[in-house]
Amino acid sequence: MSLTVGEMDKHVQSIADKNQIVIHRSLNRLSRSYSIRASEEIYIAPIRSVLSYATALHELGHQLGPHQRSSHVLVREKAAWKWAKKSALLWSPRMQEYAEAAIEWYEENHRNIDMRGRLYSSVVEPL
């Protein structure tokens, strides 16, 4: 089975619409994609390949998947990728390699990211 770019884009948009999530397709690099849970928005590059499709689903996973309130970035990242794979209409070997590379990066860097998160939350004063 293969999907067209249009079918992948329509699938992502239908998930977003169903869950009232706003998609901003304004980025020019997949690695810059992110999700803002508080405002139910994701920022992604336009879907042009299976990798941008996987990335869009991953960012939706940060909105809709389990464990997204964990204080551990690695837990959040793994859960978002698992959600993306489960929700995809197609999951290719290229998509799997891309997800595994992203997780590997977080496995190497999660301690520093979690530490920065704890330091930031300890210095931010409540309103």
Kindly list the characteristics that best describe this protein.
127 residues, mainly alpha, Zincin-like, three-stranded mixed beta sheet, 4 helices
Gist of the model:
The chain is mainly α and about 130 residues long.
Structure description:
With 127 residues, the chain is mainly α. It has a single domain, classed as Zincin-like. It has helices at 5-18, 50-64, 73-87, 93-123; strands at 22-24, 34-36, 41-43. Helix 1 (5-18) runs parallel beside helix 2 (50-64), helix 2 crosses helix 4 and helix 3 (73-87) runs antiparallel to helix 4 (93-123). The radius of gyration is 15 Å and the shape is globular. The termini are far apart. The mean pLDDT is 93.
CATH topology: Zincin-like
Number of strands: 3
Helix proportion range: 55-70%
Radius of gyration: 15 Å
Shape: globular
Annotated CATH architecture: 2-Layer Sandwich
In total, how many domains does the architecture comprise? 1
> Separation of termini?
52 Å
CATH class type: Alpha Beta
- Strand-pairing-aware structural class: mainly alpha
Topology:
Layout: H1 5-18, E1 22-24, E2 34-36, E3 41-43, H2 50-64, H3 73-87, H4 93-123
Parallel strand pairs: 1-3
Antiparallel strand pairs: 2-3
